[in-house]
Amino acid sequence: MKVICQALFLTILFLVRGSQAYAQTFLEPALVGSFYKERQQALCWFAPDTASTSLREAFFSILDSVAGHGLDSGRYHLRELREWSGSPLARVARNLREQDEWFTDGVIACFKALRSGTGIYEEVSYDGVTPSFEEEEDRILLARLAKVRTAGQLKEFARELTPLSPAYDTLRLGLLQARAAGDNGKCAALAAALNGYRWIHHHPFPRRIVVNIAAATLTYYERDTLRLQMKVVVGRPSTRTPRFSAWCDQVILYPYWNVPRKIAVNEFLPLFRKSPALVATMNMQLLDSRGRIVDPFSLDWPRYTKNNFPYALRQSTGCDNALGVIKFNLTSPYDVYMHDTNLKQAFLSDHRYYSHGCIRLEKPLELAVALLDGKLDTAMLAAGLKGQQPHPLRLEKAVPVFVVYQTADVEPDGRLAWRRDVYHLLK
Q1: Which of the residues 102, 316, 342, 347 has the least number of beta carbons within 10 Å of its own beta carbon?
Q2: Domain residue spans of the chain
Q3: Which residues contact 83 (CB under 8 A, 6 or more apart)?
Q4: Running DSSP on this structure, what letter comes out for residue 266?
Q5: What CATH class does 204-256+319-418 carry?
Q6: What pLDDT, in 10s, does the model give residues 231-243?
């Protein structure tokens, strides 16, 4: 009788704890359903064969290692899954189908994180690149996972999902050392860098551009080979460059600088009210609502404030244009792009945080030549001709651009580097 009561008590305990733990929803509910469709609804982790036990143990072994990739094993239901796997009473307390589904959810979410990182949308405000590939990548992951039959196959699949890269290995080693030293700040920075690396590099883009705001550098890759690196100037702490991903779809030669409204009315309007002649001196143009150029001396400047100023402002083309002679368009929702600059001396500084948010390039012509496969008249651009009309050149295939903020970084020579937290984003 005593044994029966103990068993009943433990069963009730597992039921209560299970209901508390899983008042939440699955991490990947749609993919869990698709997984069982791939398997014709057959159980996987609690199937009536000896292989299912070894599959569960293989997943626990994988979870024991994910901290080395900057992941939290507890996110993937580790405690509850261990209870169910190790106790017959726990399996009585919940039906096998339900337990199998929770294992599947943990495995899928973990494997997706190993493939393409996690916590990305806590780091970036806009991702215009990777969502378009996620559905197909998830389909491939499920098809492969549904064919797994042995513990060895599951472990091998997990290994294949993580990058084979010296830079990635450097970040992993740094995380191991930081954990051994008990340095939580460095651990957090390295975990973010590892997840960011997988997000950026997991898809085999023919080309990619990565801007690290914290390092104020740009790197250009063809496949996984670094082809070009340069200094950049990014936003001041008060006018930060946003973190995002987007496509570079065209290069614009001799661009206008269409001054953002906020800059126009807060910075230029007070100057022009005092001296309308500065409009011409600064190579600026006033445009009415129909795009026509307005004579600055025809305006009654004292009557305008930032709330009623009706004109747009742009800077004419040429070497004295704030964008220089070349601009790289980005398909983001921000007034942010990469461009040349007429203030080259800024690249001599180690503290390159001077812009309103745009990304000024140290070597814009070299990047343009690479993106346009050498089809660029660099002599014409180097001449810095005035009065040129903007000339857009569409890229044959758009190139993804990832703008990130990583204080843990890897130098081209393979050394781990630490960047200043200039935006004070680290917790």
Answers
A1: 342
A2: 2-161, 204-256+319-418, 258-315
A3: 14, 17, 90
A4: I
A5: mainly beta
A6: 999 999 999 999 9
